[in-house]
Amino acid sequence: MKILGFNIAKGRLTYCLIEGPKTAATLLDHGYEKFDPARPIPDMANYFKQTFCELIKRGQPDQISYRMSLEAKKDSISYLLFSYGILNLIAHEQGLHIAQTISQTFSSKALGAKGDKFQICDQLIKAPKSSWDNNYRYAALSALVSFDA
Questions:
Q1: Tell me, what DSSP letter sits at residue 6?
Q2: In what helix (H) or strand (E) does residue 27 lie, and over which residues does it extend?
Q3: 105 DSSP 8-state letter
Q4: 14: enclosing H helix or E strand
Q5: pLDDT in tens for each of the 149 residues of the chain?
Q6: CATH numbers and ranges of domains, the chain
Q7: In 3D, which of 7, 9, 5 has the Cα closest to residue 28?
């Protein structure tokens, strides 16, 4: 099973494509796309639709997962919340299962190991050392815990 995980932060859409099972996960692809968070909402909606569709087409995932930030403020709603509404619609239209996670989802029980969630993530998928940051880890963790969903 392949799961495409997403994490969105201001100006950055991060993704990780992981093939499971969780205990022997393989990182197939990862990267990020930059965006202007000050774009008008219709332009940003179009950007997210096109970008999500391209990443799904390229990765051919069996499932999609994303981390929802619970820290959205008024100036970040258009890229932190609306974007995932668009992703849910795309998943529905393409018949893909989609799972939503939050940071609290990444518990020791969900990950099957005790310790720091980021270190567990790195161990489970043997993450690349260069330029691998917490945005990648959140996208990967979202995918990893979704293998059980």
A1: E
A2: strand 26-34
A3: G
A4: strand 12-19
A5: 999 999 999 899 999 999 988 888 899 999 999 999 989 989 999 999 999 999 999 999 999 999 987 665 655 667 777 899 999 999 999 999 999 988 888 888 888 888 889 888 888 887 676 778 999 999 999 999 888 75
A6: 2-146 (3.30.420.10)
A7: 5
Q: If DSSP states are collapsed to H, E and C, what string results for the chain?
A: CEEEEEEEECCEEEEEEEECCHHHCEEEEEEEEECCCCCCHHHHHHHHHHHHHHHHHHHCCCEEEEECCCCCCHHHHHHHCHHHHHHHHHHHHHCCEEEEECHHHCCHHHHCCCCCHHHHHHHHHCCCCCCCCHHHHHHHHHHHHHCCC
- Counting every residue written for the chain, the total comes to 149
Secondary-structure breakdown of the chain: helix, strand, coil percentages, each rounded to the nearest 5 = 50, 25, 30
Rounded CA separation 127/31 (Å)? 12
